[in-house]
Amino acid sequence: MQIQQRIEQSLNQGLEPTHLEVVNESHMHSVPANSETHFKVTLVSPNFDGLNQVKRHQKVYGLLQELMQNPVHALALHTYSPDEWGEAQAVPSSPVCMGGKTRE
């Protein structure tokens, strides 16, 4: 199973999201082609009601603990309660990578 699929499966099972989007952004970084190391996650879950961002991120990292040790290098998290998502429904764009081996 691919890393992206494992992330999706873990988050679906652990947080029962009403909206989940996992985007592999590895191609935007200095990694080999077809890598699965950098991801952007947009997650809407009733499990986030009343929790601040730190607690939400802790829940996500707890579910992905094994993947975060290896092979996932970076995880951009955008976590919302259903009410917050109803107001937002858009996430920030990821910045262009400025680091890595190709930096001059």
Folded structure, characterized:
The protein has helices at 3-15, 53-63, 65-69, 82-88; strands at 19-24, 38-44, 74-80. With 104 residues, the protein is an alpha+beta fold. The chain has a single domain, classed as 2-Layer Sandwich (GMP Synthetase, Chain A, domain 3), CATH 3.30.300.90. It has a three-stranded mixed beta sheet with strand order 1-2-3. The radius of gyration is 14 Å and the shape is globular. It starts with a helix and ends in a 16-residue tail after the last helix. The mean pLDDT is 87.
Primary descriptors:
three-stranded mixed sheet; globular; single chain; alpha+beta; 19% strand; GMP Synthetase, Chain A, domain 3; 104 residues
Short description:
This protein has 4 helices and 3 strands; from the N terminus they run αββααβα. By secondary structure, the chain is of the alpha+beta class.
Largest β-sheet summary: 3 strands, mixed
Helical content band: 25-40%
Text of the CATH class: Alpha Beta
Distance between the termini: 36 Å
Q: What is the CA-based Rg, rounded?
A: 14 Å
Strand content: 15-25%
**CATH superfamily, please?**
BolA-like
Overall SS class: alpha+beta
What overall form do the CA principal axes indicate? globular
